[in-house]
Specification:
about 350 residues
């Protein structure tokens, strides 16, 4: 049985790794294609004009963006009665977000599951509250993303004269699906009506351990999203702060590269940044360059500037993610040692018996 489980886990890991490699190759191909299309020499020339305090500003705002994520996670856990150290959570958050950034786009939840597991081990947090925090985070983020997607597409239509063809249809469809999903959730949450009962009815899951845990997660989630309490509104405020920081980073970088100070331009750039984040590509490789080349080109700011923008954004994010990678290795070594020690102690106890 033990070896069957080991083989099962190994097969899952290999599939995930294979999918990661395929997506990485696709990203590299897209990256090479867009650079060849625009021209590396022009990109390099524009990139070399960006240096000094400008880079420090972009890096500082990027760090604030990640730190706002720590604050949001701690706020959610604290609302569930789990008052944990913000430094300890920060260490885990940076490590988990690094997993999402470099390795986990195929599943979109790899970093969150890692955070839930390590936080449970480190702070002895209940499993239901851990997973409920993940769900609440995703719903808060989706709610804010929907607002910025709508503002971004409206600004794009207003500022450009491009024909509203396939791109517009796909984007409106994406916004529509997200809006319907969130509307159903908030309506059910307001009426305190379970969404899961329909899932259980069709799936056949009723009284097993997992279904009970999922129901508890839903209860925790509904308790947070209570329109009559300030908890939900504070959570949305923190989530908005995170995206306002991302918007500020876009504004600073557009100003540094082009001298433009238009708020609508920054909204459009953020809109395409969000679209690039949805693509399942490691570190948004290729996707970020294509979307920003299209966005800057459509706004008359130049495709070369768009690619330079994506290079600088990725450079700042990679620097922060490398710090997260160091924390990830540190946590991995720490918990591996603890696991080995526990296994060794159990083996010694059995031998004594």
């Amino acid at each position: 049985m033990f070896w069957e489980n080991q083989i099962f886990v190994y097969n899952i890991c290999m599939r995930k790794f294979l999918l990661f490699l395929i997506l990485l190759l696709i990203g590299c191909f897209l990256f090479y294609g867009v650079i060849k299309w625009v021209g590396w020499e022009e990109v390099k020339e524009t990139l070399f004009t960006f240096s000094g305090y400008k880079g420090i500003v972009i890096l500082a705002v990027t760090i604030l963006i990640w730190l706002s994520g720590v604050w949001r996670w701690r706020f959610i856990l604290k609302s569930q009665g789990c008052n944990v150290s913000i430094l300890g959570l920060g260490e885990i958050f940076f490590a988990g977000t690094t997993i999402n950034y470099f390795f986990s786009p195929p599943v979109y939840f790899g970093g969150e599951l890692f955070r839930a597991y390590i936080a449970r081990k480190k702070f002895s947090l209940p499993q239901e509250k851990n997973f409920a925090a993940i769900v609440i985070e995703k719903i808060l983020s989706a709610s804010v993303i929907l607002v910025f997607l709508i503002l971004g597409i409206v600004s794009f239509i207003f500022l450009t004269e491009l024909p509203f063809e396939n791109f517009g249809i796909i984007t409106i469809g994406l916004i529509g699906v997200l809006a319907v999903g969130l509307s159903v959730f908030y309506f059910r949450s307001f009426k305190k009506e379970s969404i899961l009962r329909y899932f259980f009815r069709f799936s056949g899951l009723k009284n097993n351990k997992n279904s009970k845990m999922i129901k508890n997660i839903e209860k925790e989630t509904f308790r947070f999203f209570d329109f009559k309490k300030s908890l939900m509104w504070k959570g949305l405020g923190i989530a908005f702060l995170r995206y306002f920081l991302i918007l500020a980073r876009c504004w600073f970088l557009v100003f540094f590269l082009t001298g433009e100070t238009g708020f609508l331009i920054s909204l459009i750039i953020l809109f395409f940044l969000i679209l690039a984040s949805i693509l399942p590509l490691p570190a948004r490789l290729g996707g970020l360059e294509i979307t920003q080349a299209f966005a800057f080109g459509s706004l008359g700011l130049g495709k070369v500037v768009g690619i330079t923008f994506s290079f600088i954004i990725r450079g700042a994010e990679i620097l922060v993610a490398l710090f997260g990678l160091m924390l990830l290795i540190k946590l991995g070594i720490k918990f591996s040692k603890e696991s080995i020690e526990k296994t060794t102690n159990k083996f010694k106890i059995k031998r004594r018996r």
